[in-house]
Amino acid sequence: MSCPTFRPGRPSSAAPQEKRPHEQRPNFTTYYFEDLTVGMRETLLKTVMNSDVVGFAQLSGDHNPIHLSDHFAKKTKFGGRIAHGLYTASLISAILGTRLPGPGAVYLHQTLNFKGPVKIGDVVEISVEVIETTEKGRRVKLHCECAVDGNVVLDGEATVTVPSKHPRPARDAAPASPQA
To answer: For residue 112, what are the CA distances in angstroms to 57, 146, 168?
Structure first.
């Protein structure tokens, strides 16, 4: 007896997914605090698809017609639909959590400066660069930038905490018993 193949998020009768140029499976790179130096940089390219914008609207509850309605959006100063600003910002999180610093990094703070729209079909170049490391708390500050066709559409700074190669013992851990 064979079992049907389960594909999360997509009913078996659904049409094939959109072709996603510049889309890669997560490529994890893990850096510990001790590995990070000022100037380290990582870049990712992401093509913004209609399904990304619709999915983000469903996830966030932000159904502003500037993101979802061609009829409404063509009357705005942008002349068409635009991606949610926080969708674009979330692409920064993709790099921080998977590549630089990578798995184990935890957000503490993020500033965002929105400078231009991102439209469906745009290829966004997302870059982060280590600009400061602070040993106390294993904190790392990174400059973050998103650009479309060489024009910066979003920038800011993120502060994350990063795991150490030498984890500290848990505060309530029992002392190690001597070996006999």
So the answer is: 20, 10, 33
